[in-house]
Design goal:
Elements lengths: L11 E4 L5 H5 L8 E4 L9 H13 L2 E4 L13 H13 L5 E4 L2 E3 L3 E6 L5 H18 L4 E3 L13 H12 L2 E5 H10 L4 H6 L6 E7 L1 E5 L2 E4 L7 H14 L4 E4 L7 H16 L4 H7 L1
Parallel strand pairs: 1-2, 1-12, 2-3, 3-4, 4-7, 7-8, 8-9, 9-12
Antiparallel strand pairs: 5-6, 10-11
Helix pairs in contact: 4-5, 8-9
């Protein structure tokens, strides 16, 4: 296996989308520090798209964020897909692979991320499946706290469910800061308390994204708008609590000019820089 390319805790990244391939390939040094792709959309892809991915991953660290493993489902995993995924991660020297703490299948793909009931039984079930994936991939994975709207049965709070899964599966966390913000408003809990109760040592990296204000008490996680100031503030708080970690700007549609995305990545980097260790700040001075 080829050695992975590790990320600096000060790294600010951008989601790799096919609509952005041209600007990403022509990007100036420093526009972003790493890229993130969904391997489900790239495994087996050849032609100019496959060549573009190989060229980008040869120049920039690439992390992978899965869409279709359906960790909370009951159907057995596709062993052939897991083998292909392991080869893809090795080929591109991927330092972090993550998946959603959700399910997205029920005798077929649902094409949405459905919340898992917050119960002890579900903790044991999904933790066991995460361990299966880690064994198949030969690496620890990170799971992402998802946004959800219709809450399933909740025998425990979201934060307790997330923490229980992380502990039992012995996996890492992809902390989506925007999802914490959105869920806290939609489900009426304290985002700051949620952050304080997370196991900081398990946080692999952060996600940050824009959302849609449907109403004062209803936010929709769209990834189709600029990041709100309140979400940047929550990212800053997460860095205060846990120290800086690599942070990824997600934008899935309604793309602005590339220069605006670069400026937003710079905002992410500026938040991380405020929390740089003293020796790192002195080195840049």
């Amino acid at each position: 296996m080829t050695a992975t390319r590790q990320l600096s805790p000060m790294a600010a990244g951008l989601g790799l989308r096919r609509a952005l391939l041209g600007p990403l390939q022509a990007a100036a040094p420093g526009d972003f520090d790493f890229l993130e792709c969904a391997p489900d959309n790239w495994i087996g892809v050849g032609g100019r798209y496959g060549a573009a991915l190989r060229e980008l991953s040869s120049r920039h660290p690439l992390v992978c964020h899965g869409l279709s493993l359906s960790l909370g489902a009951v159907e057995p995993f596709d062993d052939t897909y897991l083998l292909k995924l392991r080869r893809f991660l090795d080929e591109h020297r991927v330092p972090v692979f993550s998946e959603h703490l959700s399910y997205c299948s029920d005798d077929g793909q649902l094409y949405d991320l459905m919340p898992i009931p917050f119960t002890e039984e579900a903790v044991h079930h999904v933790a066991g499946r995460i361990r299966q994936v880690q064994d198949a991939l030969g690496r620890r994975i990170a799971v992402e706290n998802i946004s959800y709207y219709a809450a399933p049965y909740q025998a425990m709070a979201e934060i307790d469910f997330v923490n229980a899964v992380l502990a039992e599966a012995d996996c890492d966390l992809l902390l989506d800061v925007n999802n914490v913000f959105v869920n806290a408003i939609n489900h009426r809990y304290d985002a700051h308390d949620f952050l304080r109760r997370l196991p900081g040592q398990r946080i692999a990296y952060f996600h940050i994204a824009g959302h849609y204000d449907e109403a004062a008490d209803l936010k929709v996680d769209t990834h189709g708008a600029p990041v709100k100031p309140d979400v940047f503030a929550l990212l800053d708080e997460a860095c205060t609590l846990f120290g800086p970690r690599p942070a990824l700007l997600e934008r899935d549609f309604n793309f602005p000019p590339y220069a605006e995305l670069v400026a937003e990545v710079a905002q992410v980097r500026a938040v991380l820089a405020r929390h740089a260790p003293a020796e790192a700040r002195h080195a840049r001075a």
